[in-house]
Every structure is written in structure tokens, then in C-alpha cells.
Amino acid sequence: KGVSTIGSHQLLHWERFATLLKAHSRSFATAGSAQICVQALRTGRRIIISLYGTDIGLDVKSIGWVFSISSFVDMSLFYPAGVIMDRFGRRYTNVLCAFIFATGMAMMPFASGFTSLLIASMVMGIGNGFGSGAMMTLGADLAPKEGRGEFLGIWRLIGDVGGTTGPLVVGNIAEVWSLGGSAFALSGIGYVAVAIFLWLVPETLQQENGTRRKGVGKQGEK
Asked: Quick check: 6 pLDDT over 90?
């Protein structure tokens, strides 16, 4: 009897999971795809800076400085990013984040020394800084009142899938083509995220009167 009860609970959980996926399939397909792109950029950034630093002959200390300065720029934008997100909307913030991030990644193949690598890394830091908390906030906005925890669990899983994609893109394309090709591929992924946020993901920012900002479609309704 105990085993049967456990089995029925597991079946119920899977049914709720399937129902949630079906009910919010459009959100997962659009906003989720954009999140995969952004997370791929984020994890790819960590690897490609190190590889490029080594490739252009920088020592470990110099590469460490590049990471530290880029991370400081990233961190300094946490609060402004929140202000922008709440004032201008989630879409504005996500587009700004992905566009600047992708542009910084596209600058990587042109790095030839410490300064140029630092500039490209700082641009990526600015982009990532503007996106601080943006994916978590978007997921919380899209999550329904019922099944909120399950929705956010799926949302986090989608983000983790994107996180594993970045290193794979860098490694495989660098092996077949070049490290520069990896950077351009990641940059292209970032621009795809820009397009998705612009045309497929609705604005989810709630106004004080409880309405949403202009441009929200049915997907944003709870």
C-alpha cells in the first residue's frame, strides 16, 4: 500500500509537470530560448577570456587582472540595472544586456594584447551587469500563481541547459574552426536573444495600477 501511495504521488507530480509545460509552452519556447542564449554567453565568456589571454601571450597575472576589472564593472551595475528594469521594463533591460554582451563578445577576435582584451571584457561586463537578476525577474513575472514553484524549477532548468551550452560552443567550434569563430558564434547567439526579446517576449513589468506596460500580448497574461 505504501509503495502504491508513493507511486501515485509521483504520477501526480509528473502530470502536474506535463500540464504546466503544456499551459506555458509558449513562454518556455520564447523567453526560455532567450534565456538559453544569454546563459550560453555568460558561461562562454568565462572560458573565452582565459583562452584568448593565453592565445595572445598574456601571463596568468594579466588574465587575472582582466577578469577582476571586468567583474568589477559587472558588479558596479547591479543597482542601476534594477532601477532600469523597474522603470523602463524587463524587455528594455534584457535587450540592452544581450546587445552589449554580444557586441563585446564580437570584439574578442580583434584582441591582440592586454588593453584590447580588457576593453572587450569590460564591454561584456557592462552587458552582463545590465542583465543582473533579469532572467530571475522575468521568470518570476511569467510564473503563474498556482504551480509557481514548479514553473520556476523548469525555468531554472532551462537556464542551466543554456549554461552548459556556452563551453560546448567554444570548445567544439574552436576545435573545428578557430577561437575567433567561437567568439563570433557566441556573439551571434547573443543577437538571436536580442531578436527574441524584441519580437517574441512580452513586457511583464507591472504598473502601480496593476496593468502591464504597452505591448504585452496574451503570453504575458496569468
From this structure: no
